[in-house]
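Before any further analysis, we paired sequence with C-alpha cells, yielding the entry below:
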Amino acid sequence: MAKTEKTHGPGYKVLLVEDHPMFREHLGQLINRDLGMSVCGEADNIRDAMQLIHERQPDIAIVDITLRGSSGLELLKDIKAQGLNLNVLVLSMHDEELYAERALRAGAKGYITKNEASTEVVKAIRCVMKGEVYASKQMTAKLLGRFSQKRTPPELAGMVTLADRELEVFQMLGRGKSTREIAQSLNLGETTVETYRARIKEKLQLRSAAELYLRAGEWVREHGA
C-alpha cells in the first residue's frame, strides 16, 4: 500500500517503509517536527517502496525489517543492485546483534531499534544524512567484542549462520506459515522453500520438522520476529 505525498516541509525528502500505520504516523510527526524534513511517501511492502523510490527520489528511506510479504533486507539488496543513490536507515524492533550487521552488509547506512528514545532516532537520521554510518553504542560495543573475541552469544549460536533468506523463512515458519504460504509470499517455488527448510534444520542441528516449528515458534515469541 503506497501513499501519495502527505507533507511538504523544507529540507530533505523522506520515504517511510513500515508495515504499522500508527508507527508510520508517529515517525512522520517526529521527522516533520524535529528535523524539518518532509515525508514524500509511505509504503508497507517492497514493490510499492521501489515504485516510490523511482517516482519521488527521496534523500533517505527509513525501513523496517518486517514488511508486508517480505523483508526489509530484500529491499536493501534491491536498492543496492539497482545502484540507487539512496541513504537507508533501518529502524526495527528486531535484535541488533542478529540484524544490524546483515542490514549494513546489505547497504544500510545505519541500524536503530524502535525502543530507542525519539532523540536517538533523530540523531541517527542526522548522522546518516551527513554521510556517516550510525550504530548505537551498545551495538558498536557488541560487534567489537564479537570481532575481538571471535565469540557469539549463546542465544544466537546457530542463528548467525543462517543466510538472510533462510532467516526469513525461519521467521515465517515461527509465525505458523506453511511451505505453500511461504512460497507464495516470497515468490519462490515450494521446492526452493523445502531446500531452505532443510538447510535451516542442518545448521540448527534439528532432527525433524516438529523440532523446526518448535524452535521457530520460540524464536518469534522471544524476539518479536
